[in-house]
Amino acid sequence: MPVLDTVNTKIRMQRAGRIKADVTLGERAFLYSIYASVIAFALFCLIPFWLVVAGSFTPEANLRLDGFRLIPRAFSTYSYEYVIHGNQIGNSYLVSFSVTIVGTLLALAVTVPFAYVLSRKVWISRPLSFLSYFTMVVGGGLVGFYILVSKWLGLKDTKWALILPYLLDPFFVFVLLAYFRTVPEEMIEAAVIDGANDLIVFWRVVCPLSAPIIATIGLFYALRYWNDWWLALLFIDSSANHPLQYMLKQLQATTDARFYIGNPSPRFSTVPNYGVRLATVVMTIGPIILAYPFVQRYFVRGITLGALKG
User: For the whole prediction, is pTM greater than 0.85?
Assistant: First the structure.
């Protein structure tokens, strides 16, 4: 909002002593009202998440009796202890981490060079662009997709069935393509004059300049792999290969969590069915919340540049 930016700039300059106090009372009221609205909206969005966190630390009996409360009447870590001491949570965490890390790296290794080829004026860029756009409009259908992955590729009940189908997203390709076309052609020509081939130009010139958009696309791929349960539903039978999101779905569909997580110790005499689901949700969201601050500075710049430039 230009008005909000102007008011912010005037207030910062006033506090730095660079201009006199000419910020009107109406401008300050407008600015503070915007801040108050944003804070109120953020708190409103955090309420559902806080209910999940509070419920995960609530005893099972209180959950059944009182339901969800902002401030639980009793505090208990029994649900987390049950989940952590079970066998399934460790397997699912390992599967989710491995699929997310390997899948994101491979997806970037395929998507970024592919988008760069499309951005260059070579003979193959036009047919590849058409094929990329065509797959966004027309799909092969669920039956054909299942036969391709499970029968022809032979990936049934393997971790590769959770990785390979998401390696190349046409939407992310076109976002990268829009950014690559904004890289100054003079820089590429200067590198070519200095003796650089296409691979060196791409690796040493284009990639460093495109770090914000590449980090943004990497975050999108990581979120997709981390939050996906659909591929596990289609192709994974063994519980040892269930990712966290599919584990949560199984807990929602299972009447007794003992049959899925297992009872690791005799001291867990009762199974906190509701608490286990809430605790699993918190443990599932945690890694993404912790990872986001490391790429946040690239995220805002990258999504803005990739969306507006072209």
Answer: no
